[in-house]
């Protein structure tokens, strides 16, 4: 027998805009940057906006700490966040299991952003221990209370969910969030168990099913705003995913981290589906790693005073941006690894390192042709894979070597032939698991 649960349904304050109105006012953004702990900080958001991203999320902020600790607030959401010319539209994301802490935190940031998101997707142990993120998926009463209080407080609010193994339950869950007052819904098409080594593919069928069947709160004619999350590797995937799921927008995490050029094309003019088309716009959509590294570093320096990036996050970005390059140019990777004084400008000039990378690429240009080609061997009807020179940013195909429990598992295409990369990934398994959200 179905367990009776008490659900909160928000009363909409008078004059409050609907999700669709907010979406239209924000210019109908289609290409969004995911919330990313340690990675969607101000500097990276600015870089992404320069490269065609239309809306960004902050990293997840912990409402318990944010509501109480001024230092935490200062460190994670400074005065420049949301006020920099290139930092809007912006969604601030909180994790929480406590209404008072959540509302207090929202009040601190509501004038510096366009919407506030509740994190219902974090699958990490830290979320398990703190009882938030995807570990609230069993507590619909609490979720509906958190969302409805945000809504009733007059905030423009969204939530980002994961899916259940059952499609119907996933829809019911999404509907509960919307009825509680979520004006937008981000759907990450993976189960809570799909993380680390068994991340696998997101299931777009679930996202499509939720999007096609969900009813907007109060059941008006308006369509619920739904954002699809997962499986974005190449620019052409954006249209493919939007056409398939019929969602309003896509958001990407790892796709952008490894290649900030993912969104950087003109949908009317540029051909992003063929190797030839991509080759014509390769500087935009697969930027050279030395150039993007310089651009990112310049932004980091420009916002350093008000919103300093942590060394950990800076290094993690560089490792991701340069992943294919570092896998071949091991000496430069080894040189970058121990660099810990990057932000102490007088002691270490990071521009000297950038110059070394640039020089190395120039030397390699004779040897490795600068063309994008279509990789027929790895293709199937739905997904196209491309060969991109190692000195250009490109998607990262994860190495997965295990299946656990009942997690749905679709083998993702991986570059296992790249033995060096494979071994490197395995060696860094520990680090990777820690990095994986
Ligand atoms: C480094 C990293 C940090 C993440 N941090 C967050 C976060 O703060 N909040 C959140 O909701 N999801 C977070 N995620 C999950 C992403 O937002 C996204 O849902 C997930 O990576 C799947 O999308 P992708 O396949 O485009 O990467 C994180 C993912 C990564 C890789």
TrEMBL record:
PROSITE patterns: UPF0034
Cofactor: FMN
Superkingdom in the source lineage: Eukaryota
InterPro entries according to UniProt: Aldolase_TIM, DUS-like_FMN-bd, tRNA_hU_synthase_CS
Record-annotated DUS-like FMN-binding domain positions: 33-336
Gene Ontology molecular-function annotations: flavin adenine dinucleotide binding; tRNA dihydrouridine synthase activity
Catalytic activity, reaction form: 5,6-dihydrouridine(16) in tRNA + NADP(+) = uridine(16) in tRNA + NADPH + H(+); a 5,6-dihydrouridine in mRNA + NADP(+) = a uridine in mRNA + NADPH + H(+); 5,6-dihydrouridine(17) in tRNA + NADP(+) = uridine(17) in tRNA + NADPH + H(+); a 5,6-dihydrouridine in mRNA + NAD(+) = a uridine in mRNA + NADH + H(+)
Alphabetized Pfam families for the sequence: Dus
EC numbers: 1.3.1.88
Keyword entries, A-Z: Flavoprotein, FMN, mRNA processing, NAD, NADP, Oxidoreductase, tRNA processing
GO biological process terms held by the UniProt record: mRNA processing
Uppermost EC category: oxidoreductase
Homology family: Belongs to the Dus family. Dus1 subfamily.
Protein name: tRNA-dihydrouridine(16/17) synthase [NAD(P)(+)]
